Amino acid sequence: MSALPESTVARRARLAWLAALVFLIAAPFIGLYPIFMMNALCFAIFACAFNLLLGFTGLLSFGHAAYLGAAAYFTGWLIKSAGFTPELGILAGMLGAGLIGLVVGLIAIRRQGIYFAMITLAMAQMVYFVWLQAPFTGGEDGLQGVPRGKLFGLLPLASDIAMYFVVLAVFVAVFLAIIRIVRSPYGQVLKAIRENEPRAVSLGYDVDRYKLLAFVLSTSLAGLAGSLKTVVLGFATLSDAHWSLSGEVVLMTLLGGMGTFAGPVLGAFTIVGLQNFLADRVGSWVTVIIGVIFVVCVVGFRRGFVGELLAWQKRRKGN
Amino acid sequence: MKLKQLAAACTVALASMFGAATTAQAQISGDVIRIGIITDMSSLYADIDGAAGVEAIKMAVADMGGAINGKKIEVLYADHQNKADVAAAKAREWFDTQGLDMLIGGTNSGTALAMAKVAAEKKKPFIVVGAASSALTNEQCNPYTLHWAYDTVALAKGTGNAVVKAGGKTWYFLTADYAFGAQLQNDTAAVVKAAGGTVVGSVKHPLSASDFSSFLLQAQGSKAQILGLANAGGDTINSIKAANEFGVTKTMKLAGLLVFINDIHSLGLKTTQGMYLTDSWYWNRDPEARAWSRKFFEKVKRMPSSVQAGDYSATLNYLQAVKATGSDDADKVLAHLRKSKVNDIFTKGGYVRDDGTMVHDMYLMQVKSPDKSTEPWDYYNVVETFKGDTAWTTKAETKCAAWK
Amino acid sequence: MEIFGIPLQAFLGQLMLGLVNGSFYAMLSLGLAVIFGLLGIVNFAHGALYMIGAYVAWLAMDKFGIGFWWALVLAPLVVGALGVVIERTLLRHLYRIDPIYGLLLTFGLALIAEGIFRDRFGVSGQQYEVPELLQGATNLGFMVLPNYRAFVIFASLLVCLVTWWTIERTRLGSYLRAGTENPALVQAFGVNVPMMVMLTYAAGAGLAAIAGVLAAPVIQITPLMGSNLIIVVFAVVVIGGMGSILGSILTGLLLGLIEGLTKVFYPEASSIVVFVIMAIVLMIRPAGLFGKEA
Q1: Other chains touching A, judged by 3 or more CB pairs under 8 Å
Q2: Closest by alpha carbon to B76, among B27, B125, B123, B33?
Q3: What pLDDT is attached to residue B10?
Q4: Pick among A282, A290, A298, A302 to test the C interface (most C CBs inside 10 A)
Q5: What's A257's DSSP letter?
Q6: CA geometry: angle at B349 spanning B343 and B355, to 5°?
Q7: Is A29 in contact with A202 (CB distance < 8 Å)?
Q8: Of A12, A105, B239, C16, which residue is the least packed, with the fewest Cβ within 10 Å?
Q9: Which tens digits make up the pLDDT trace of A175-221?
Q10: What pTM was estimated for this model as a whole?
Q11: In chain A, what residues touch C103 (CB-CB under 8 Å)?
Q12: pLDDT band for position B26 (50/70/90)?
């Protein structure tokens, strides 16, 4: 039995979220490299989008990088060669990713579990090879020289600080949106599907349509992460669509805690931070470390940081 | 609920600190001269440049005394793994947070083009040594990029002309599918056609392809006299090996358009003898180069490639310019580099042109047969020297706005 | 004479090369199909085991002077032992939970293997000589085929045949199939099911290793050789039907041939043709060509 009234718990929760937000707002001014933070925030969006599918709907998409990469390329090309302003370019990238997600989803939704994962992986590979060959992506060289431009044609984004706050704003918006989706009646049905799909079917829900919508939402938001990243860094390359990135986002979500809100964000920051910190020092061992974290998580840490924390809290309350 | 969110905030904070810790020095430090090299240290081109290239740079720093006017010289290095995004991100990070004064890099045209953009944005000098794409000083030229050792035009003019003159009129290209490969093929095809030859066909292979059998079969089917290898590093080695395996070398002659001494060393003289190639430098070319190469050999246990010699030369000349102007301000140093001549173990009478090319002599060489080689690494005969201006893109051909 | 605008010689030559590649795919997907069909594990580490097999062959030659023919025996033993360790210590815990975790675990193992080998050996790759007996080439009239590549076809098909026959036609195979379908019952009959499971995984790993040794003389031995191939191999298994051994073998061969043809007419698409086929097959027959509906 909880010793505190619900309103106090809710108030404390909001205070903690506020503290995190304040920290993020202050970040560039307290010496954290803005480019790193923006990169991490983009991957946090990616992980949250992925978690919507895995943690809340129970679908493992093992080729999610395809959507991040697709949007990255679309946005990059539209801004650089068609003169789109950044917000239109990002929007267009998102839509593009969502469209590809729709096509893949239509093919893959028919199967469950492992088969679903394998199909998404193979479809992602197909998309990857299209990028490899298509002239507009620049192939191995990547799409370079994407200007930051002016947001809405007014606000110049060349300054890292200005760009940072735009990225932060988008991140907060996505985060809140996901909370809204999950807590809505639609989200409840998704959770029911995750828990016990046959029962959801027997209750009369058109399960395939719910899953497909979740898939498209997830891929669009993953695309948003890719588009943002392109504007921040000024290029889109094959690494954005490579299957190793698909694996990494699974790890971010698993490590942080599937099916929680803060989990994927934590996971993203940890993995991106790790890669950044270790890349110079230990070279190839970064891959090994990521692999070890995978193994450890799967064998003994399946609930992830936040999941374990929640479970510990429940045990405490239980006593 | 509360604890979880608090823990969340804390961990985000810690993770960010953790990750950004190394990059938190936001001040540009003015009392150290920092030179950074971003190149391929672990993959396809690791032998041609790689860690040994870093050694060459350190040799140049040592030859300048390790410091200039009291300011220490520091060398940073990173592995771009042939990924343009890694190269660009690392370059940006060094400029923003490490006070990098000069960037050296390449061994992959895609990464070099990406880094050139970052350097131009940050208005700092970027000297390309290993990458070959002529676009760096042509369509994509900018005032901060210098191209030091060689480019696809120089290679094409050298090997292309020589082979056509020797009777190789019909060509088929096996090309690596990225900026460098395409550029090399285009430049060589133009030279071949201008010299009276014809290009019968071509096929593109993915970078670091493991199996060349299918492509070689197609090359054989083309019935061309010459198989032009528009690739480099491990890809070239594997192409040559497979060509021998499938008997392609019995009906076609190989023209390696970008071959380094490390490739010959890997394949052996038996497989490569008689092959023509164009390069910017050879360790056994003259006594001065030989002396320097022996010093290099002591450190690295193999003879330097032209790229590693280029790393040394570029660093040396940059540092000399810094010393002469008394500052590490990018514009002043670049202006000085453009005014002075390059006279070192790499070349004599070289100079930097308005489009960024460091103009110097190129050499057409032929691989010796095993019986003519007198010592380890003695692989080439210098057949012809292309003097300065004849080897590079001419003013009439250039698309670089700064040089018109 | 021309077929679809390509000279017959070139056409046949590419088909031949396609057959060589197809036998490779068949061998690789065989191990994967065995492990998934019998154990229900999606073994993402398969590519890494293949790579380790190749390195064992190279190290055996480089450090101990052990030749190709011995390596064909040594590598599967070494990698099989590794498979035993993996199954014993890690995979065993995952049978009762969602199979997704098995996939993720083996994915992590693949990363570890790749990272360690990358650090130790670099990415440029090692050269491995074709064994003396098989050097040289034969002029088949329409093309010159190196003898070694012809050997690869025969060796792969032999291994595939033996494996298929063992699993589908012998008593041991039937114990295996029964034991994974209903472990409790089979165990009650006195068959040591956990031991069988362990040996099955080891056998799958051994198959990957043999493929690695066969690949060593023709493909550059690099830490990335497995990850480059693994997804294609998965696609082959999915097309063939994830539980079907025969399906994987036939699909592997078929894919090699189709890829060979694609390289002639539209080489840029040769890398993705397997995925296109997969999409089409899954839309018509969701369980794969030879698979049974779950």
Answers
A1: B, C
A2: B33
A3: 61
A4: A298
A5: -
A6: 105
A7: no
A8: A12
A9: 999 999 999 999 999 999 988 888 989 998 898 999 999 999 999 99
A10: 0.87
A11: 60, 62, 114, 117
A12: very low
